[in-house]
């Protein structure tokens, strides 16, 4: 049921953090995992690590905010691997600023990286995904649900991910494509490390509010990726699933 042998998965931003955690899960379940991110050396290193662990992996350089480069990414993916079954839209960034402080440039950068990238990748992937049915996994956040003063653009982009996922789920259901969003809680990665070190009291607040009593790790996202990529989730679509140690219900 969870076997992904013969499947090809693309993970944007898969060269580190949560993306690499999910890539490890998909590769261990048998998928050939293609990592797409901007830093080619880091992506090659991540693909090498997946292969060293017994998986199948490749890397293609791509900036997923650029429409032309996204087209090239999927053309190259099809040329190299001939198919695409699983698309994980994970690439993301943040600018920690209040709505009154954020510049238009920063707003666009966050929206382009977190939300427009998913739209561009889904459009480019659609032709491949509908051949034999497929899976889209979009990465949202607790900020898809909650408000926070410093998450103006980030929260807007992540709220958008949930609604975009629901649109995909309804539009593509008849083509046997399931689309779901994953909402990670506080996960220890490069994205959160700065805030954890610089924002006074953040570490203590996260630990106190998270019933699991700890920060998540990228490996905590591997299981949900395998579930949503596999036939085990064929009747699950349009869902927004927290993976947060209970943060969202406490
Ligand atoms: P990281 O900063 O560790 O990873 C971000 C990844 O995105 C990197 O691999 C980066 O690679 C890639 N990336 C950024 N911009 C682009 C771009 N324009 N084109 C292609 N790739 C890009 O962050 P996380 O692993 O923490 O975050 C991954 C996702 O999870 C994000 O969507 C984030 O919002 C979400 N998330 C994270 C949480 C957390 O607590 N960490 C909580 C909730 C959600 P490169 O620089 O090489 O391009």
UniProtKB/TrEMBL annotation:
Which SMART domains does this entry report, sorted A to Z?
PKS_KR
Start and end residues of each Ketoreductase domain:
7-189
Q: Which PROSITE patterns match?
A: ADH_SHORT
GO MF annotation, one: oxidoreductase activity, acting on the CH-OH group of donors, NAD or NADP as acceptor
Checking InterPro entries in the record gives: KR_dom (IPR057326), NAD(P)-bd_dom_sf (IPR036291), Sc_DH/Rdtase_CS (IPR020904), SDR_fam (IPR002347)
Which Pfam family is an annotated match for this chain, by its short name?
A: adh_short_C2
Q: Which Gene3D superfamilies match?
A: NAD(P)-binding Rossmann-like Domain
**PANTHER family, sorted:** SHORT-CHAIN DEHYDROGENASES/REDUCTASES FAMILY MEMBER
The family classification in the record reads:
Belongs to the short-chain dehydrogenases/reductases (SDR) family.
- What is the designated name of this protein? 2-deoxy-D-gluconate 3-dehydrogenase
């Amino acid at each position: 049921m969870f076997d992904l042998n013969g499947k090809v998965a693309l993970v944007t931003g898969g060269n580190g953090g949560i993306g690499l955690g999910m890539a490890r899960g998909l590769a261990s379940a048998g998928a050939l995992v293609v990592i797409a991110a901007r830093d080619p050396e880091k992506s090659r290193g991540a693909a090498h690590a997946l292969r060293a662990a017994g998986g199948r992996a490749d890397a293609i350089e791509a900036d997923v905010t650029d429409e032309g480069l996204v087209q090239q990414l999927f053309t190259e993916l099809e040329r190299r691997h001939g198919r695409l079954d699983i698309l994980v839209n994970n690439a993301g960034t943040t600018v920690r600023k209040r709505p009154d402080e954020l510049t238009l440039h920063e707003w666009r950068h966050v929206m382009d990286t977190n939300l427009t990238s998913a739209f561009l990748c889904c459009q480019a992937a659609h032709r491949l995904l509908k051949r034999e049915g497929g899976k889209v996994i979009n990465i949202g956040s607790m900020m898809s649900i909650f408000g926070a003063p410093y998450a103006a653009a980030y929260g807007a982009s992540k709220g958008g991910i949930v609604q975009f996922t629901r649109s995909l789920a309804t539009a593509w259901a008849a083509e046997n494509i399931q689309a779901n969003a994953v909402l990670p809680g506080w996960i220890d990665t490069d994205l959160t490390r700065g805030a954890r070190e610089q924002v006074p009291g953040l570490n203590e607040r996260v630990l106190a509010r998270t019933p699991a009593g700890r920060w998540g790790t990228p490996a905590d996202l591997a299981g949900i990726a395998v579930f949503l990529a596999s036939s085990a989730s064929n009747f699950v679509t349009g869902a927004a699933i927290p993976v947060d140690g209970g943060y969202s219900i406490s």
